[in-house]
Automatic annotation (TrEMBL):
Residues 13-73 form the HTH tetR-type domain. GO terms for molecular function: DNA binding. The keyword DNA-binding applies. Keywords: DNA-binding. It comes from Heliophilum fasciatum. It comes from the Bacteria. This is TetR family transcriptional regulator. Residues 36-55 bind DNA. SUPFAM superfamilies: Homeodomain-like (SSF46689), Tetracyclin repressor-like, C-terminal domain (SSF48498). InterPro entries: DNA-bd_HTH_TetR-type_CS, Homeodomain-like_sf, HTH-type_Tx_Regulator, HTH_TetR, Tet_transcr_reg_TetR-rel_C_sf. PANTHER family: ACREF/ENVCD OPERON REPRESSOR-RELATED, ACREF_ENVCD OPERON REPRESSOR-RELATED. Coiled coil: none annotated. Gene3D superfamilies: Homeodomain-like (1.10.10.60), Tetracycline Repressor, domain 2 (1.10.357.10).
């Protein structure tokens, strides 16, 4: 049986997307604190009550957009995880994918850090589970050293991302990340002598 969305459901999604699009534009251009719910609904040409049918606060909009980005990211990372490329290339592709997502969403992440007090991504253990799977695969195949606990590899990988994000180096973010990735993979694949 074909799953066809009703006209009413399509309209709900359209209203939701309209609220989110106008809110994000206002947050970026006017500022989060300076933007009111009335500003959002006026810009979207919707009633204030409509806003509250979808969200409880401006912060809820940020959380919604962030979750949408992470869901999309998770799908990309799962495709990499299931691919037939080597574990080393999977790690490289994951890091490049995450870096691209970060670069494409700098303003969103800035808003979330400043207004949601976001210290860690809201994706829970999903991202970590994908990494654990790839590292485990690499250790079993002999591509990665077996004498390093997976937890330490994950911690180092996450530290690599944080280090690139907070670097004051004059080289570009992607170049910085690639140098650090080469060092990371070199240590992870170096054979015991």
């Amino acid at each position: 049986m074909e799953n066809v969305m009703s006209r009413r459901d399509r309209k709900k999604i359209q209203v939701l997307n309209t609220l989110v699009d106008f809110a994000m534009k206002l947050f970026i251009n006017k500022g989060f604190e300076e933007t009111t719910i009335a500003d959002i609904t006026k810009s979207a040409d919707l009633g204030t009550g409509t806003f509250y049918n979808y969200f409880h606060s401006k912060e809820d909009i940020l959380k919604y957009v962030l979750v949408q980005k992470f869901d999309h990211s998770k799908n990309s990372l799962e495709k990499i995880e299931k691919s037939t490329i080597t574990p080393q290339e999977k790690i490289r592709q994951i890091l490049i994918t995450l870096a691209k997502i970060y670069e494409d969403n700098l303003q969103l992440f800035g808003l979330c850090i400043n207004h949601l007090g976001l210290k860690q991504p809201p994706h829970g253990t999903q991202f970590k589970d994908i990494l654990v799977s790839i590292i485990d695969e690499g250790q079993k195949s002999g591509d990665f050293r077996k004498n390093i606990p997976i937890e330490m590899v994950i911690e180092t990988f996450m530290g690599l991302i944080k280090s690139a994000l907070s670097s004051h180096s004059k080289i570009s973010f992607m170049e910085n990340l690639n140098y650090k990735l080469d060092l990371f993979l070199g240590g992870l694949t170096e054979r015991n002598k």
